[in-house]
Amino acid sequence: MIVPGVHQPPRHGSVDPMTQATSSTATSPLTRPVRIGLVGYGFGGSTFHAPLITSAPSLELVAVLTSDPARVARLATDHPGVPALPTLEALVEAGAEAVAISSPSGTHSAMTERALELGLHVVCDKPFAVEAPAAAVTIEKAEALRRVVSVYQNRRWDSDFLTVRRLLAAGDLGDIHRYESRVERWAPAADPSSWKAGATPAQGGGMRLDLLTHLVDQAVVLFGPVASVYAELDIRRAGSAADDDDMLALHHVNGVRSHLITSKVSGDTSRRIRVNGSAGAYVVNGFDGQEAELIAGRTPLTEGDSWGVEAPSAWGRIVRGDLSEPVESERGRWDTYYPAFAAAVRGEGPVPVEPREALRVLEILDAAVVSARENRIVTLA
């Protein structure tokens, strides 16, 4: 028997990652593709957004907002015929109905609100805002203007995360008491030329607003609302302007404790997930392969049904003392996010990630700042 609330349909009508892959609105092209623009063509825009947009028959990439000469040249190579434009207004003039925002994190609120004012539906990359109050303002604007807004929490569709959801729903691990999730890198020297290396938290810099955003979102989807937060947010590298070595401990209302760690200074990057329950632990080392596939130039369009399929060597294991057995991984499904967004724009399906879900994540991350600054546990309403 699993803890209450472990596998509930996502709140506020968002898409359930466990069922989305078989949903006709998530996988079938619409009668009329959604014409979408993209803001930003740095690593995020070129790697995590454009290839998934152009792989989806239900969307048409009409233009990219960028003026950097190197990025304009890369866009011409990657997506011939897709123009680079200078403003959101120019995207609208080019016929965009929606926009995906992959600009620096500190610009997300202003960009999203301006796009809404121009009548665009919006995908906003995480973080939705740098603080929860700003996100709440954006949500109110979207609701007033009756526009669809979704936050790009693509790691809800990681192979390992979907496998955890399957195991919890089946009760294979018994009553869950602790969930551990890590994304760690070994980059002990900060790159001063990197925007993120020089960005303050107020500008959206730091691991808290980067990778911890994903880990908190996953923990809340798995185990529900959070009662209290304890955080350690540290700067370890010379030249870093924001946190680069973080630990977050969440106590969920249902009693589960989540321990979440992100770091740029971890020499051991092998650990990913461990779920401890009364009937055993599920352990995953290594990372979902979809990011590496996109970096290598492979896409859902080029790979077809093999997209997101993990090799047996990457599968996790259920461990019970000396006994250990492999568990076949669910297929990673980043390729279903944008078709689901397009269906939501057309009124044919739910929003893949509701903005109020992202607001709850930001409230937890705001509490983490207070906890780290005051060295105490922060209780949430």
Automatic annotation (TrEMBL):
UniProt keyword annotations, A-Z: Oxidoreductase
InterPro entries hit by this protein: Gfo/Idh/MocA-like_OxRdtase_C (IPR004104), Gfo/Idh/MocA-like_OxRdtase_N (IPR000683), Gfo/Idh/MocA_oxidoreduct (IPR051317), NAD(P)-bd_dom_sf (IPR036291)
Span of domain Gfo/Idh/MocA-like oxidoreductase N-terminal: 34-152
Positions of the Gfo/Idh/MocA-like oxidoreductase C-terminal domain: 165-380
SUPFAM superfamilies: Glyceraldehyde-3-phosphate dehydrogenase-like, C-terminal domain, NAD(P)-binding Rossmann-fold domains
Biased amino acid composition, Polar residues: 17-29
Pfam families linked: GFO_IDH_MocA (PF01408), GFO_IDH_MocA_C (PF02894)
Example of a GO MF term: nucleotide binding
PANTHER family attached to this UniProt entry: CONSERVED EXPRESSED OXIDOREDUCTASE (EUROFUNG), CONSERVED EXPRESSED OXIDOREDUCTASE (EUROFUNG)-RELATED
Family, similarity comment: Belongs to the Gfo/Idh/MocA family.
Entry protein name: Unannotated protein
